[in-house]
Design brief:
Length: about 140
Amino acid sequence: MSSFRSVISTALRGAAARNTAKASSMNRAKQNLFGGRKLLTGVKSGDDKKSPNKSPRTWKPNVFSKNYTSEILSRKISVKVTAYTIRCIDKAGGFDNYILKTKPERLDSDKGMALKAEMQKQLRQQKRAAAAANTQPKQPTATSD
C-alpha cells in the first residue's frame, strides 16, 4: 500500500514539474511584455459539480497588441501586452516610466530588457549632452566703446 502511494506521489510531483517547466518557458512571453503572467494549468470540472469527471486545461494570458510612443526614444513601439501590463503602464505614468522602473524579474522579457537598456543609454547620452552644454566656457563678446 505504501509503495502504491509513493508511486502516485512521484507521478504527481513529475506532473507538477512538467507544468512548471511549461509555464516558465513560454516563448511569446519572452518576446512581449506580459508582466510576469504565464500559462496556468489545472483541471476543469464537470458542469453539474457532482460529476467526478475532470479534464486538464490551460489558461492563457489575456493579450492585446498595442502601440506606445516613447518620449525618450522618440519613436512608436508596437508590442503585445497583457491586460495586467496595460494597468501597470497606466499606474506607472506611461510606457517609459513602466519600462525604466519595473524590476527585471517582474519585466521577465527579452524585449522589455532590450528596451530598458536602450532607454538607459539614451538617457545617459542626453545627460552628457546637457552637462557638456552647461560646462562650455562662454566666449567673451566684443564690445565697441
